[in-house]
């Protein structure tokens, strides 16, 4: 049943490889949990068995550390999906996980860096216009300029970028097609800074770097001419952050900064939802809490009767 469900997630649901790997790991642990309780089939599982698994996730054991609420919630989501699948496929007569709810998670506000810090970060791409420096600058501009996840950025191909012509005097600098979770694609505009950085990279750097490889359509290349990996992109960001004197900067923080700065500038939350590729606007609305804090700061500093 487990292998059938994982195949269903991969083929019919189109789950990303990283998500699928997490589900596989969580569900194998669940199957081991059931086996230890003497349960050999989905039809034998009771709600108490699922609840006990959730408790074991939070408590940990000799082989597994205790999981935080977010990781435990992901595991419970995988288990609930497995039992729904078993019921639908006739492998069980009931769904014992239907009423089991994942642990409540503390709502953590996304962290963002300021516009000035973003500018320092991108300026620290490198000391010159060497090919890899141009690549690094283009990568950072795309991450911040489009709100792309790091996996989406390194997954880009050259054909995914549409650049406006050199005589285009409008704000738009072209578009980029990003492929997000579940294989969902979205089109995100490229601003002038990202377009300029990509132009410099594509014309003056990528052909030189590509000559070291065997030929690939990947947009961002490593020094050997192959597709830049997530780890490679992470190292680019960390090196630039260190030179800029910034700590704790991650690719996801640039994504958070993209959303926060848009909302601070007056963008509608549903527009930001589309740009980020969120399936639900409730996921995006967490950023509105950040901007409310910003509004309070501005009000307290600017309104003549705000001080107490």
Can you describe this structure?
The protein is mainly alpha-helical. The protein folds into two domains: 87 residues, DNA polymerase, domain 1 (Orthogonal Bundle); 184 residues, Orthogonal Bundle (hpI Integrase, Chain A), CATH 1.10.443.10. The chain has 14 helices and three strands. The protein has a three-stranded antiparallel beta sheet with strand order 1-2-3, with no helix packed on it. A hairpin with a 5-residue loop joins strand 2 and strand 3. Helix 2 crosses helix 4, helix 5 crosses helix 10 and helix 6 packs antiparallel against helix 8. About 2% of the residues have low confidence. GO terms for molecular function: DNA binding; tyrosine-based site-specific recombinase activity.
Describe the structure in brief:
The chain is mostly helical. It is 55% helix and 5% strand. It contains 14 helices and 3 strands.
Break the fold down into its secondary structure elements and pairings.
Layout: H1 2-11, H2 17-36, H3 47-59, H4 69-88, H5 115-123, H6 131-146, H7 150-154, E1 161-163, E2 174-179, E3 185-189, H8 192-204, H9 206-210, H10 230-244, H11 251-264, H12 269-276, H13 281-284, H14 286-302
Antiparallel strand pairs: 1-2, 2-3
Helix pairs in contact: 1-2, 2-4, 3-4, 5-6, 5-10, 6-8, 6-11, 11-14
Low-confidence stretches: 167-171
Largest sheet: number of strands, sense, barrel closure: 3 strands, antiparallel
Can you tell me the number of structural domains?
2
Structural class: mainly alpha
| Beta-strand content estimate | under 5%
The CATH C-level name of the largest domain is Mainly Alpha
CATH superfamily of the largest domain: Intergrase catalytic core
Give a count of the beta strands, DSSP E runs of length 2 or more. 3
State the strand order across the main sheet: 1-2-3
Separation of termini?
Answer: 64 Å
The H/E string reads: HHHHHHHEEEHHHHHHH
- Please name the CATH architecture of the largest domain: Orthogonal Bundle
Protein name: Tyrosine recombinase XerD
Subcellular location: Cytoplasm
Organism: Acrocarpospora corrugata
Active site: 149, 181, 252, 255, 278, 287
